[in-house]
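During the no-cost extension, the postdoctoral fellow (Dr. R.K.) reprocessed legacy sequence entries with the updated structure-token encoder. One reprocessed record is reproduced below for audit purposes.
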Amino acid sequence: MSKVINLGRFRKRKQREAEAKQADANALAHGRTKEDKELQQREREHQHAALEGAKREHPLDEDSIVQTLELDAPKLDGDDDPQSPADADDEHES
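Re-encoded structure tokens follow.
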């Protein structure tokens, strides 16, 4: 008597083998090896690090830029800012 075969399993196994064969053919025709991908990623990271290290100024976040601009801005008469120590001394002398 012959062996009983589950046709669903047989069909699925045959389909998986055909898909694997097609994937291998596509990888040879179009793809890169894992080593090639890793090498390119390492080179990209190295170039990025070299570029970041060569920059004159490091990028600042928006809050840092606003704080820097506020510190560098000249004080105008009539500002609602608290008095500077020099202004406070002038008032005490009179």
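The radius of gyration is 35 Å. DSSP finds four helices and no strands in the chain. The remaining legacy entries will be reprocessed before the final report is submitted.
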